[in-house]
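for the writeup, i need someone to sanity check this before i put it in the appendix. the sequnce is what the collaborator sent (i think, or maybe the updated version? ugh). structure was predicted straight from it, no edits. if anything looks off just tell me and ill rerun, i have time this weekend
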Amino acid sequence: MSSDQHLALTEVGTNEVEIMCFYIDIHAGESVYRAYYGINVAKVLKITRLPEQVMRPPLTTHDSVYGAFHFKDRDTVVPVVALARYLEQPQIESDTQKLIITEFNQVMTAFLVSGITRIYRLSWADVEKPDKYINEYSHNAFTGLVNLEGHIVFILDLEKVVIELNPDSGKDFFGVANAIKADRSIHVLHVDDQAIVRRMVKRALEQDESFTVESADSGQEALAMLQGKLAEAKEKGCAVTDLVNVVVSDVEMPVMDGYTLCRSIKDNPELARLPVYLFSSLITEETLHKGQSVKADGQFPKPQTEVMAREILADLARKCIESPAAGAV
């Protein structure tokens, strides 16, 4: 694949994703071990060789920060992360190393790897969630794993990596309490496979005592929870929207992604009135049509929690004015 090759897009709501597979060659005694990893193609800006001129500051906040370089395509300086160092692996240096330049959460970061294999189109249903053991030894660095052509490929949680290396990149998750004051109780079901994001969003929204946040780590789990809420609502003789007011979902998740979750909710007559907001690093002006195609009520790029909270409150207020009886199932 050339660095200028167009990266194809999957259809929305089909629970498909395109994963770019790459590898890191590491020392394993006297032999070489090739470890395979993957990232969502939608986060990749460009693949290039390691530039000759990489600025290496004498002091960095983390050992895995390799340096920085001038990215001419955007006329900006981009930090370089030595991914093997972050994963505590002894990478073999070579002249063929590659840089994967990414953009998400409104931040550009380049990751140094040994090489690229190819792009795979697969279903999120085929991606397994890491078990407790994998999470512990990897420091929660992986969002999923999948078997591709006989290789176990670990899908990296790049957002967690960037937030850990640059805590300021997550500061916009906070600050809701002083800016938002709701005049009603709002129960939010937040869906995200990343534990660090679930904690940050819960902490941010619940700074306003009007917000109560319940969490799920996949679209499948969220859908099961909503089915439980439906049963509870019928038993109590109330609307499901009396038990949960809003669903806020990430897009990129193992098992079931956010687009598929949103479509499943909107296609269910008993859940269709439930507002669904997508909150993801993949959301840009160019991708808004994807959420619109699955009838999302709103879309917000991470990490703008305050903006999302304001819009949710305004949207709920509009819905109450337009349809005072909207709570009825």
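The longest strand covers residues 16-28. The chain has a mean pLDDT of 84.
thx in advance!!
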